[in-house]
Request: fold
Amino acid sequence: MRVKAVISYDGSRFNGFQSQKHTTNTVMHQLQSACKRVGIDSKIIGSGRTDAGVHATGQIIHFDLPPFWSDIAKLQRYLNSYLAPYIAIKRVVPVSNDFHARYSAKRRAYRYIVSKKPPNVFEAAYRSYFFINPKICKEALTLFLGRHDFRYFYKTGSDTKTTIRTIYKARLYEQKDSYIIYIEADGFLRAQIRMMVDAVRKVSNTALTLTQLQEQLEAKKQFSSSLAPPNGLYLCRVIY
Reply:
């Protein structure tokens, strides 16, 4: 039986989501280790990778269960006991055998949290802090809506055949003492969100003009290639 699991994790504790050759300190390694402890040898597939320091509240994985694992609620409890405290399986549901966490996904969404004031030491790993002009940020974010070639908005190393992506939602809203940037698309390139957010930040503090952002989005010229800090970023939803 194939199952889909919704997981969350504290990205500040890991060197990224994907397995790596030179470290075992990844979310995927911890997931595989927990599964092996309960007799599951299936390969785990994630909806996408996240960088070191990036968090998730709605990452999706799938894996196949051996016949003796029919009690999914019990399986979830066992796995969570091995994954705590920095990874949690929020929900496990049976899916069809042709379901694929990555390739079946139609949309992905991220939230980026920017604190309005310097975060204390207990919050610093979970939100960024930099100046934002809400009105200008909202104007800059609207430029991303639609289908664009993001060749100037990603780090090399992406496993992709095209740099064209469609952005369905790109908005900024306030929540208590923070600004939230929400971006939803049919997919993202490596570090694309962080590069987009940093470009918006630069427009907000006049280090980049809206015209320059538009030209970069039209793949005419790259004016900005730096990344927003990872600690404010959360993979929050994958839509199938």
